[in-house]
């Protein structure tokens, strides 16, 4: 998977997108704030701050609210320059003025307490009057230019700031929400799927598989999880299969032991009760008892051998030796039994050494089991062959016959315990464990065994055969 799908890159892209969006929000809000402040605070100043702007014939109509908002007041003077009316809260003690006083008030001084403006007007009654406006100097500069915000402007500024703050909170919340949803879709949702899948596996549901589209790291987790789940499922299936096999094996052992033991018990009771008087019959009975006893002993020995081979820590000792010589010895050992039953026994083994690591005793047991089955279950005249073939990194041992073959329904489970090629012959001396033991021996050597069944009308490389067992062992 490409590096651009890695979690770090994904988080970095998401973070950059979030920061960029947040920056746009901040820029937009600051622009809006500047516009609002400029419109509200730097727009046209409230009128009616100088005397000439507020003169009215009727005194009660004089607009003094703007002046009062800056802590100033309006005085109405008569022709004698006496104060006859005041609008607002007067902060000095003057009750009348002289021309000298007015000139001093109107003259620009740096340290003056008030900014003053004066305008004459004719009142509605025809009398000459003067309007005198006084505004505290800290609120005004020359030409009545305000230096600080008045109370109304403070309210406007606070209102705009609160609106901008509320808008920022809303936009920031929306940005955070969509960023979280995006991150959840890319990261949290796949992780939740992984957690759910792990929970399913913990509950024994090994068939569940992950199939989510995610970044590189989570995709790796998904891949490894699916491999793990697949192995666990196969292990669980194998466990169930082994448990079922063991259960069936116990039943089969009980059955196979019960038959000869019951026979032995019957013959022994007959001898004890004196029911057999003829000496020849007694000898035959003792021979039958011996045969059944040997059958039980052989069955127990096979079960014991199989139990050992099934142990994961079975102490297999191997030695690099000539497998060809081992097979020649086995062929010589079985030549007589095959000849006695009118079988045709052939072998094709290289004359040179074929050295591989193997346990001679166990390999002898495995090959002998296969040859014994061919001898036991096939009729006279059957052709049996033993062949050794060399491959690149492996050797192949082929045991074949052109006998009766193995039933189709048994071929897939022929290596299971207590499965016989001829199911009708359960008490003829065969334990039904020979092929199972053979398979375990081969697998202990890191090899494999395979059954081929050739129809009567087909030909194999070694002639017409009903059954072919192929054992493949590694050279190293």
- Top-tier CATH class of the largest domain: Alpha Beta
Main sheet summary: 5 strands, mixed
- CATH architectural grouping of the largest domain: 2-Layer Sandwich
CATH topology of the largest domain: Heat Shock Protein 90
Instruction: Report low-confidence residues grouped into runs of 5 or more.
Output: 142-148, 456-464
- Mean pLDDT across the residues is 81
The secondary-structure element order is HHHEEHEEHHHEHEEHEEHEE
Give the helix tally: 10
DSSP strand count: 11
Gyration radius, in Å:
56 Å
- Strand fraction equals 5-15%
Shape: rod-shaped
What's the CATH H-level superfamily name of the largest domain? Histidine kinase-like ATPase, C-terminal domain
Helix content: 40-55%
Please explain how this structure is put together.
The chain is an alpha+beta fold and 476 residues long. It has 4 domains: 3-42 and 148-197; 59-139, no CATH class; 217-305, Helix Hairpins (Orthogonal Bundle); 316-474, 2-Layer Sandwich (Heat Shock Protein 90), CATH 3.30.565.10. It is 50% helix and 15% strand. It has 10 helices and 11 strands. The strands form 3 sheets. A 5-stranded mixed beta sheet has the order 6-8-9-11-10, with helices on one face. A 4-stranded antiparallel beta sheet has the order 2-1-4-3. A hairpin with a 3-residue loop joins strand 8 and strand 9 (394-401). Helix 5 runs parallel beside helix 6, helix 6 runs antiparallel to helix 7 and helix 8 (323-340) runs parallel beside helix 9 (360-377). The protein is rod-shaped, with a radius of gyration of 56 Å. The protein starts with 6 loop residues before the first helix and ends with a strand. It catalyses: ATP + protein L-histidine = ADP + protein N-phospho-L-histidine. Its main location: membrane. The chain crosses the membrane at residues 15-35, 156-179. This is histidine kinase. It is found in: Cell membrane.
């Amino acid at each position: 998977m490409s590096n651009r799908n890695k979690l770090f890159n994904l988080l970095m892209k998401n973070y950059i997108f979030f920061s960029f969006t947040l920056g746009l929000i901040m820029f937009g809000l600051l622009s809006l704030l500047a516009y609002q402040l400029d419109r509200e605070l730097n727009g046209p100043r409230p009128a009616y701050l100088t005397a000439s702007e507020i003169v009215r014939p009727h005194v009660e109509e004089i607009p003094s609210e703007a002046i009062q908002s800056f802590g100033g007041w309006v005085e109405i003077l008569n022709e004698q320059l006496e104060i006859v009316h005041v609008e607002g809260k007067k902060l000095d003690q003057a009750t009348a003025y002289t021309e000298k006083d007015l000139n001093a008030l109107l003259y620009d001084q740096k340290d003056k307490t008030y900014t003053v403006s004066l305008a004459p007007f004719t009142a509605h009654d025809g009398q000459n009057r003067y309007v005198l406006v006084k505004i505290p100097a800290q609120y005004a500069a020359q030409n009545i230019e305000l230096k600080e915000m008045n109370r109304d402007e403070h309210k406007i500024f606070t209102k705009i700031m609160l609106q901008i703050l509320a808008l920022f909170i809303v936009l920031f919340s929306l940005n955070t929400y969509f960023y979280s949803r995006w991150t959840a879709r890319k990261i949290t949702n796949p992780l939740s799927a992984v957690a759910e899948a792990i929970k399913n596996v913990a509950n024994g549901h090994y068939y569940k598989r992950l199939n989510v589209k995610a970044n590189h790291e989570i995709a790796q987790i998904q891949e490894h999880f699916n491999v793990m789940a697949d192995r666990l499922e196969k292990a669980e299936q194998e466990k169930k299969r082994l448990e079922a096999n063991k259960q069936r094996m116990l039943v089969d052992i009980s059955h196979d032991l019960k038959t000869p033991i019951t026979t032995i018990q019957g013959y022994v009771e007959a001898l004890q009760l004196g029911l057999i008087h003829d000496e020849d019959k007694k000898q035959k009975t003792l021979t039958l008892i011996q045969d059944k006893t040997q059958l039980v002993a052989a069955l127990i020995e096979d079960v014991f051998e199989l139990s050992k081979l099934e142990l994961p820590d079975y102490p297999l000792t191997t030695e690099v030796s000539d497998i060809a010589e081992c097979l020649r010895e086995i062929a010589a050992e079985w030549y007589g039994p095959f000849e006695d039953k009118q079988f045709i026994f052939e072998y094709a083994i290289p004359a040179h050494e074929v050295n591989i690591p193997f346990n001679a005793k166990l390999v002898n047991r495995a090959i002998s089991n296969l040859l014994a089955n061919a001898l036991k279950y096939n009729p006279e005249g059957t052709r049996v062959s033993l062949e050794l073939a060399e491959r690149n990194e492996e050797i192949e041992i082929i045991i074949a016959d052109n006998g009766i073959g193995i039933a189709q329904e048994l071929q897939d489970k022929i290596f299971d315990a207590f499965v016989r090629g001829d199911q009708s012959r359960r008490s003829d001396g065969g334990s039904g464990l020979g092929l199972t033991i053979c398979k375990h021996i081969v697998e202990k050597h890191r090899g494999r065994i395979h059954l081929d069944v050739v129809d009567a009308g087909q030909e194999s490389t070694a002639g017409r055969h009903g059954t072919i067992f192929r054992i493949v062992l590694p050279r190293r």
